[in-house]
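Worked example

This section walks through a single chain of length 206. The input is the sequence exactly as stored; nothing has been trimmed or padded.
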Amino acid sequence: MNDNKVLQASARIISAIFHPLLIPTLGFLFLFNSEFYFSILPWALKKYMLLVVFITTGFLPAISIFVLSINSKFDINMEKNTDRTLALIISAVSYYIGYLFLKRLPSFPVYNILLIGSVLVQVILLPISMRWKISIHSAAIGGLVGGVLSLAFRLQENPVLLLSTVIIMAGLIGTSRLILSKHSQSQIYAGFTVGFLVLFLVLMFI
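Given that input, the structure is written out below as C-alpha cells.
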C-alpha cells in the first residue's frame, strides 16, 4: 500500500516537472549547453531567450488556463475534450507569440524553427483531441526527442548524452502517465509519434 502511494507520488512529480508547458524551456536549456554549433551564443542572449521562451510557452498559457479555471464550467484537470482543445488553442497562440519574439533576435534560425514546429504539433493535436484523449505530455517530449535526433542527423553530430537524456525523460513521462491512469498505452504512443514525426521532419527539411 505504501509502495503504491510512493509510486503515485513519484508519477505526479515527474508529470509536473516534465509538464508540456515546461518542455520548450528545458529543450532550449539543453540545446544551449549542447555541442551543436548553434549553442555558441552570448550568455546574456541565452538568458533573454530562455526568459522569452519560459514566459510565452510556460507562464502565459499557464496563467490563462488558471484564469479559465475560475469558471466552474472549465475543469483544470482537462478531462473533457473541450477543455483540452481550448487549452491547446491557448498554448498554440502563446507559442506563436514566442516565435515572433525570437524571430527578432540575432540568433540562429533553428530556435525559431523549434517553436514554429511546436505550434504545428499543437495544431495537429487539436482535431485529434476533440475526439480522443491523445497524450499531450507524450507529444511534447516526443517533439524534443525528434528534434534532437533530426539535428544529429542533419548536422552529422553524435550528441549521445543529450539524446540519452531526452529518451530517458520520454520513458519516465510515459510511465508516469500510465501509473496515474491518465492515458492508455495507445494514447501515449500516438502522442509521442505525432510530436516526434513533426519536429523530426520540420528540423530535417526546413
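What to look for: The CA atoms of residues 74 and 139 lie 23 Å apart.
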